[in-house]
Design brief:
Layout lengths: L10 H13 L2 H8 L3 H15 L4 E4 L2 E4 L1 H22 L12 E5 L8 H11 L4 E5 L5 H4 L5 E5 L7 E9 L1 E6 L11 H6 L2 E4 L8 H9 L5 E5 L5 H5 L5 E5 H8 L4 E5 L7 E8 L6 H18 L8
Parallel strand pairs: 3-4, 3-5, 8-9, 8-10
Antiparallel strand pairs: 1-2, 5-12, 6-12, 7-10, 7-11
Length: 309
């Protein structure tokens, strides 16, 4: 942006650009920032003229960012986060009176914690807001536009601070009257019925795939789904098995009449951590939020594991 008079730039254009790069859809970006679709479309036109780049181009049903847009995404997210922090800075965070909205990156395999998290937050801060987004395969990148993120404890990133919370364990779920779970779920029974698999966002093998390969076991996957949250509804109405995090399915097992069984092969537990950028380390409000997140998720991960029959 060399040669551009910053005093002549509307900060709302940068807010719009941030939303457009995150959503890659004008209508969703408009909803995200509380503006109309025509206003957001006009903002994109102004940004294209200002930066001399198309920024987002049509691709299938959505829009794809140009290389210039991709280069802008992370530094823009950091800049806007700093501005928000500057304007919201509080000498002492007053939870009962705050109306601050905190932003959380949460993969769907941990989404079952959200009701308890929101309950804990609003018990202390009734006016607080929570905005949740999926990491879309890049937890560290998504954190550029968020306060904290939940994810595997092995993630690395510049300026990233982490706090371990516990481990996710795995179970097999089936409908309660599934013929394969009458008695103990054996390896033979587990392999005799169709399975549901969540499509890996990076296209690589999942934790379960690697465990199966190590055990020399093959299963029949007849349904691939994009999300962990879709599979339990299918399991409740079919003879499919689904191997999932116990912490995800335990809160909904009773409602969907599901049975949880130990996995008949060894699967490594997944260490989970909460992450934030070091810039927020001293922010009182941020510290309150990450403590609530850590407390709630840690408590859920400490729940008693299931026992075999």
């Amino acid at each position: 942006m060399h040669g551009i008079d910053l005093s002549a730039i509307d900060l709302n254009l940068l807010v719009a650009l941030d939303a457009l790069l995150a959503e890659r859809n004008v209508t969703r970006a408009a909803s995200r920032i509380g503006r109309t679709q025509p206003a957001t479309s006009h903002a994109l036109s102004r940004l294209r003229e200002l930066l001399g780049d198309p920024l987002l181009v049509r691709s299938g049903r959505g829009m794809a960012p140009t290389p210039r847009a991709l280069a802008l995404a992370e530094p823009l997210g950091h800049a806007l986060a700093d501005i928000r922090r500057l304007l919201q800075e509080e000498g002492e965070f007053d939870a009962p009176r705050t109306t601050r909205t905190f932003r959380l990156v949460c993969p769907d395999l941990l989404a079952a914690f959200l009701p308890e998290l929101l309950g804990s937050m609003t018990a202390d801060a009734p006016g607080v807001g929570l905005a949740v987004r999926s990491p879309d395969g890049d937890t560290v990148g998504a954190l550029a536009n968020a306060d904290v993120a939940l994810g595997p404890a092995t993630l690395e990133g510049s300026g990233l601070v982490r706090r371990g919370l516990g481990r996710v364990t795995w179970v097999v779920i089936a409908r309660r009257d599934h013929p394969g779970v009458r008695g103990r779920l054996t390896l033979k029974r587990w392999c005799a019925y169709p399975h549901i698999q969540v499509r890996a966002r990076d296209g690589g093998p999942s934790i379960l795939d690697r465990a199966l390969a190590a055990a020399g076991v093959e299963r029949r996957v007849s349904l691939h789904v994009p999300s962990f949250l879709v599979a339990p509804e299918v399991v409740a109405r079919t003879d499919h098995f689904f191997t999932a995090p116990r912490e995800l399915v335990a809160p909904i097992a009773e409602r969907l009449s599901l049975r949880m069984c130990p996995v008949p092969i060894p699967i490594p537990e997944l260490p989970v951590a909460v992450f934030w950028h070091e810039r927020f380390q001293a922010d009182p409000g941020h510290r309150w939020f990450r403590e609530v997140v850590a407390e709630r998720v840690s408590a859920a991960l400490r729940r008693e594991p299931i026992k075999g029959p």
